[in-house]
Amino acid sequence: xxxxxxxxxxxxxxxxxxxxxxxxxxxxxxxxxxxxxxxxxxxxxxxxxxxxxxxxxxxxxxxxxxxxxxxxxxxxxxxxxxxxxxxxxxxxxxxxxxxxxxxxxxxxxxxxxxxxxxxxxxxxxxxxxxxxxxxxxxxxxxxxxxxxxxxxxxxxxxxxxxxxxxxxxxxxxxxxxxxxxxxxxxxxxxxxxxxxxxxxxxx
Length: 203
Hints:
mainly alpha; 9 helices; disordered N terminus
């Protein structure tokens, strides 16, 4: 499955690749292996900074819509079949950032809320058995949120890294509790550890 052009990956990088692969193959069925082109597409999504949760939602939405109409005949669809929904999911995420900048809460209020939630997490986490990797991510986010201006793209990257770490930490019991779908598992894991989102646009 690995592409010849891939460099050694961290645990978080492997979680991204494995989670996308598992989610897609579980929905597609046979053949239960990715092509080199599909591996390269996952690498391209990660390099483009598309968060894991966005990719998973795009894949799940693709197959939900496909269930209401005919699927490609013969051999199962390739991962490229999901590209449109993944790109639309990412576009919606960006649109929310732009749209919310001029609506509801002012940007400064969103940053303050993100900072408060991050501070709460760091205050409560030490006695709650929260893994060090999540504490480190929150610490980095706290530092960024304390600067003016806050680097919101950096905060989105930390959110994405936290999602990848959460999937490494997830157990079979977590998967059963969350129900089908990697997106649901990520939400369950954030709730399990009380981990807030760090990027202000989430508020």
